[in-house]
Amino acid sequence: MADAEPIFTAVSSNAHHLYTSLQCIGFAPKATVQITSDGIRFSAEESRVVQGLVFLDKALFTSYTFNPPNTRNEEDQENNSYNPCFVVSLSALLETLKIFGVNDSSAPNAPNRATSVQPSNPATSSAFTTPALLLDRSCTLQYFQDGSPLSITLTETGVKTTCELTTYEADGGEMDIPLQRDAIIMKIIMRSAWLHNAVTELGATSPTALKISASAQEEPFLALSGSGGPFSESTVEFSVEQGSSTNAAPQPYHKVLADDGTSRARAKRAKLAPTVTETFLVSPPSSMGSRITQSYRFALIQKATRAMAAANKVSIRGDRQGVLSLQFMIDFDNGATGNVRPGGGSICSAVTFVDFRFVPLLDEEDGEGVGNLLE
Question: Does the record's keyword annotation contain Nucleus (predicted)?
Answer without folding.
Answer: yes
